[in-house]
Design goal:
Elements: H1 2-31, H2 33-37, H3 44-62, H4 67-70, H5 77-84, H6 90-110, H7 114-136, H8 138-159, H9 161-170, E1 174-180, E2 186-188, E3 202-212, H10 222-231, E4 234-242, H11 253-284, H12 293-300, H13 304-327, E5 333-336, E6 340-343, H14 344-374, H15 376-384, H16 387-398, H17 404-427, H18 431-467, H19 482-536, H20 543-575, E7 583-586, H21 587-597, H22 599-604, E8 608-612, E9 619-622, H23 624-641, E10 647-655, E11 658-666, H24 697-707, E12 711-717, E13 720-728
Parallel strand pairs: 8-10
Antiparallel strand pairs: 1-2, 1-4, 3-4, 5-6, 7-9, 10-11, 11-13, 12-13
Helix pairs in contact: 1-11, 1-13, 1-14, 3-9, 5-8, 6-7, 13-14, 14-15, 17-18, 18-19, 19-20, 20-24, 21-23, 23-24
Length: 730
C-alpha cells in the first residue's frame, strides 16, 4: 500500500514538472522569442527611435531654412492673392478698419480729447493706406510676405528646442550622411575618423535614393508649412548605426535586455524541469501522467467526435493566443480584446496560469486519446458510443421491423395533428366540427394507443417478475403484431430460463458427485497406505510379509500419485492454463506407438483388436505428447472396461480435409443413457469403482482435443461404446 502511494506521489511530481516545464518553454518562446533570438534593431522600441530620428533629421537638418534663406524663397501669384484677400476684398477690409476705430474716435470726440482723436485717426489712416497699398503694388505685398515668413520661422525655430534636444541625443547612436540632389550640398554627422570615405561596420543601415526633406511640422500655422514646403529639397544618402554605437541610450534597450535575460532563464528552467521529469520517469518506469480518475471517467463518457472537436478548438484558440502574445513585444502591459489592458505583472502571471491550464488539459486529452486509439477494446467501445454510430443505430432501429419506434412516432404525430386541427377549427369558430374531429377521430385513436400501452405494461411487469425469480407463466399471445411477437419472445426466453435452471440443478448434482467421488478415490489408496504402514511398525512381521506390505504401499502410492496428477491436469485443461508445443505429426505413427505400449496387455486380454489405418501418412499439426496421452487413455479404457471375448475396432481415415480416429468397443458395465455425464470429472463406467481408473481420462482427452481446435464425440448404442476424434489435416 505504501509503495502504491509512493508511486502515485512520484507520478504527480513527474506530471507537475513536465507540465510546468512545457508551460515555461511555450511562454518563453511565445512572449520572449524576439528578445532571445532577435536583435534590438528588430524591436518596436528601436524602430520607434529610428522613425523619430528620421523625422527630427528632416525637420531640423535637411529642411531647416535660415531667415536669410526664407526671404529668398519664391513668392507666387497665389501667395500674393492669399495675402491680399486673407481678410476679404478691399471694400470689406477698409470697412472693417473704419468700423474698428469708429466708436473709439466718437467717444474721444465726446470727451473733447483732441489728442486721442488725432492719434486714432492717424492710426486708422495708416492702416487704410497700407491696405490700399497692398491692393496697388505687388512688390509691396512680396516684401510683406517675406517679412511675415521670417518672423514666423523665427518663432518656429525657437519652438523646436525640445525636438533639437532629442535629436542631439539620438545622434549619439544614429549616423546620417545625405547629399542634396539639387545643390550637391552634404548633410552628415559622420566624422572622418568614423569612416568618411571608408567602410564602417554596421548592424543597421537604411539607404535612400530619393527622399523628400519636407516633414509636417505639427504646427497649424499655414505660413510655416508653406515655407517648409518651398524650402524642401530631395536628398539621397543613408542612416546607419555603427557596431560600437551606445544602444543603451535608446528607449527600450533596458527592457530588451531584461526580456532577453528573462526569456533564457525561463527557457533554462523549463528544460531543467522537463529533463528532471524524464529522468525520474525512466528511473521509476513511469510512462504516463498521473491519472485524474474522476475527470478521466467523465471524459471517457463524452463521444469521440466531441472529444476531437474540443481538442482541436482548444488547440486552435491556444495557438491564436500564443501568436497574439508573440506579437506584443513590450513589457508595459498586455492588451486583450474583451478584457482590455492588463499591467505587466498581472498580465505575466495571468498568461502563465492560462498556459499551464491549456498545456495540462491538452496533454491529458492527448494521453487519453492515444490510450483509446492504442487499446482495441477501448477503441471498439469508443466507436460503439460515438455519435455517428449511435445515430446509425437510431435510424436502424427506427426502421427496424416491427417498426415500433416508427409506429410510436406516427401515433404521436397523428395525435398532434388531430389536436392541431381541432384547435385550428376552434379558432375559426367551427366548434361543432372540432368536436366531431375529437369524438370520432382523436379520442378513439387515443383509446387504441392507451390500450396497446397497457398491454405492453402488463408484459413488462410480468417480465420483471420472471427476472426477479418468480413463477414462470405463459404470456398471452394477442394477434400477430408487435405485442404478439413480444409475448412469443418472452415465452421463448422463459423456456431458456427453465433449461438454465435445470442445467444448474444438474451441475449442482454433478458437483456433489464430484466431491463424493474425489473423496472416495483419494481416501481408498490413502487408507491402504496408512493401514499397511501401521502393520510394518509391528515387530512380529516376517521379512516376506514386510516385502508384500511394501509392495502394496508402493502400488497404492503410485495409484494416489496418478489420481492427483490426473486431477491437476484436468484442472489445468479446464482453465486453459496449459501450453501446447505443436509440430507436424503423422497420426498413423502416433497411434502405432500408443498401441505398442499396450502390446503385452492386448496379447493377454481376451479381446480381438481390429486396427485399420491408411497406407499414406496422415499429417496433423498437434502437440504429439498431449495427443499420445489421449490415445493412451482411450486404449487403457478399452482394456479396462471392454467385455471379454468381444471385438475392438480402431480406425483412422481422412474425410473432407479432416483426420478421423474412431475407437469402438463393447462395454462390460451398463453405462446408462446420458453420454454427456461420462465427460464429467471422476465419472467412471464402473459405477462400483472397483477398477483402477481415475474417472478423469475422458475429461482430459476431450479437453486436449478442444485445445487443438478439434472435435471429441461420444456415441453409445446399447453396450456399443464409440469415440470419434476429428482433427484438421496439416
Amino acid at each position: 500500500m505504501a509503495t502504491k502511494w509512493k508511486n502515485k506521489t512520484v507520478a504527480k511530481l513527474i506530471t507537475g514538472l513536465l507540465i510546468l516545464g512545457l508551460s515555461l518553454l511555450i511562454f518563453a518562446f511565445s512572449a520572449f522569442h524576439n528578445y532571445m533570438f532577435g536583435t534590438f534593431e528588430k524591436t518596436d522600441d528601436f524602430m520607434s527611435s529610428y522613425y523619430n530620428f528620421r523625422h527630427y533629421l528632416a525637420l531640423l537638418k535637411l529642411n531647416s531654412p535660415f531667415n536669410t534663406d526664407v526671404k529668398k524663397l519664391l513668392v507666387t501669384d497665389s501667395d500674393i492673392h492669399e495675402f491680399r484677400y486673407r481678410y476679404g476684398n478691399l471694400e470689406k477690409q477698409l470697412a472693417n478698419v473704419r468700423g474698428q476705430y469708429k466708436d473709439v474716435i466718437a467717444k474721444a470726440e465726446e470727451n473733447n480729447d483732441k489728442d486721442v482723436v488725432s492719434y486714432y485717426k492717424k492710426v486708422q489712416k495708416s492702416k487704410l493706406k497700407a491696405i490700399q497699398k497692398n491692393f496697388e503694388s505687388d512688390r509691396h505685398v512680396i516684401k510683406q510676405i517675406r517679412d511675415e515668413r521670417a518672423k514666423k520661422m523665427d518663432e518656429y525655430d525657437q519652438s523646436l528646442a525640445e525636438e533639437r534636444q532629442q535629436f542631439n541625443k539620438l545622434t549619439k547612436v544614429f549616423h546620417y550622411d545625405f547629399v542634396n540632389k539639387r545643390t550637391g550640398e552634404r548633410m552628415t554627422n559622420v566624422r572622418a575618423a568614423d569612416g568618411q570615405g571608408t567602410k564602417v561596420k554596421t548592424h543597421f543601415k537604411k539607404k535612400f535614393t530619393a527622399v523628400s526633406a519636407y516633414q509636417y511640422s505639427g504646427n497649424e500655422n499655414k505660413i510655416i508649412n508653406r515655407v517648409l514646403k518651398l524650402s524642401a529639397d530631395n536628398y539621397q544618402g543613408k542612416i546607419f548605426v555603427a557596431d560600437n554605437a551606445p544602444l543603451n541610450q535608446l528607449t527600450g534597450y533596458k527592457h530588451y535586455e531584461f526580456g532577453k535575460t528573462t526569456g533564457f532563464i525561463l527557457l533554462l528552467l523549463g528544460l531543467i524541469m522537463i529533463a528532471t521529469a524524464l529522468f525520474i520517469s525512466v528511473k521509476r518506469s513511469i510512462r504516463s501522467l498521473a491519472d485524474i480518475e474522476p475527470v478521466h471517467q467523465w471524459y471517457a463518457r463524452i463521444p469521440i467526435e466531441l472529444r476531437l472537436i474540443f481538442f482541436a478548438v482548444e488547440s486552435y484558440i491556444f495557438l491564436c493566443v500564443l501568436e497574439m502574445i508573440k506579437s506584443q513585444n513590450y513589457f508595459g502591459s498586455y492588451y486583450f480584446g474583451v478584457i482590455g489592458g492588463i499591467g505587466f505583472s498581472g498580465g505575466f502571471f495571468s498568461i502563465m496560469i492560462g498556459i499551464i491550464v491549456a498545456v495540462s488539459t491538452l496533454l491529458y486529452q492527448l494521453q487519453w486519446l492515444a490510450e483509446m486509439f492504442r487499446d482495441p477494446v477501448k477503441r471498439r467501445i469508443c466507436w460503439q458510443n460515438s455519435i455517428f454510430m449511435q445515430t446509425g443505430i437510431i435510424f436502424h432501429e427506427f426502421l427496424l421491423a416491427p417498426f415500433i419506434v416508427l409506429k410510436l412516432f406516427a401515433a404521436g404525430t397523428a395525435l398532434f395533428l388531430l389536436g392541431l386541427i381541432a384547435v385550428g377549427l376552434s379558432i375559426q369558430n367551427e366548434f361543432a366540427l372540432a368536436m366531431v374531429v375529437l369524438i370520432f377521430a382523436a379520442l378513439p385513436f387515443m383509446w387504441f394507443v392507451l390500450h396497446r400501452a397497457a398491454q405492453l405494461n402488463r408484459v413488462v411487469k410480468q417480465a420483471e417478475i420472471v427476472a426477479a425469480g418468480g413463477d414462470l407463466v405463459e404470456f398471452p399471445i394477442q394477434g400477430k403484431g408487435m405485442l404478439g411477437r413480444l409475448s412469443h419472445t418472452m415465452n421463448e426466453m422463459q423456456r431458456g430460463v427453465r433449461s438454465s435452471r435445470n442445467a444448474q440443478l444438474k451441475s449442482e448434482r454433478l458437483k456433489t458427485e464430484l466431491i463424493t467421488n474425489v473423496s472416495h478415490d483419494l481416501r481408498t489408496p490413502l487408507t491402504s497406505i496408512i493401514t499397511y504402514n501401521d502393520l510394518l511398525r509391528k515387530s512380529d512381521v516376517s521379512d516376506e510379509e514386510r516385502q508384500d506390505y511394501l509392495a502394496i504401499i508402493d502400488r497404492k502410492a503410485k495409484r494416489l500419485k496418478r489420481l492427483i496428477d490426473d486431477l491437476f491436469d484436468a484442472s489445468k485443461m479446464a482453465s486453459g492454463a496449459i501450453e501446447l508445443h505443436k509440430t507436424k505429426v503423422n497420426l498413423n505413427e502416433l497411434l502405432t506407438q500408443a498401441l505398442a505400449e499396450y502390446d503385452e496387455a492386448m496379447q493377454q486380454s481376451k479381446l480381438n483388436f481390429r486396427i485399420k489405418t491408411p497406407n499414406e501418412a496422415v499429417p496433423v499439426y498437434v502437440d504429439g505428447q498431449k495427443l499420445w496421452r489421449v490415445f493412451d487413455n482411450l486404449i487403457g479404457n478399452i482394456l479396462k472396461y471392454s467385455l471379454e471375448g468381444t471385438r475392438v475396432y480402431i480406425t483412422i481415415e481422412i474425410k473432407n480435409d479432416e483426420a478421423t480416429a474412431t475407437f469402438k468397443n463393447v462395454t462390460k458395465y451398463e453405462l446408462g443413457d446420458n453420454v454427456d455425464e461420462l465427460f464429467e470429472r471422476f465419472k467412471r463406467g464402473d459405477a462400483s469403482r472397483h477398477t483402477e481408473g481415475s474417472g478423469l481420462g475422458l475429461a482430459i482427452a476431450k479437453s486436449i482435443i478442444d485445445l487443438h481446435g478439434g472435435l471429441f464425440d461420444l456415441d453409445l448404442d446399447g453396450d456399443l461404446f464409440k469415440v470419434m476424434i476429428r482433427l484438421p489435416i496439416a
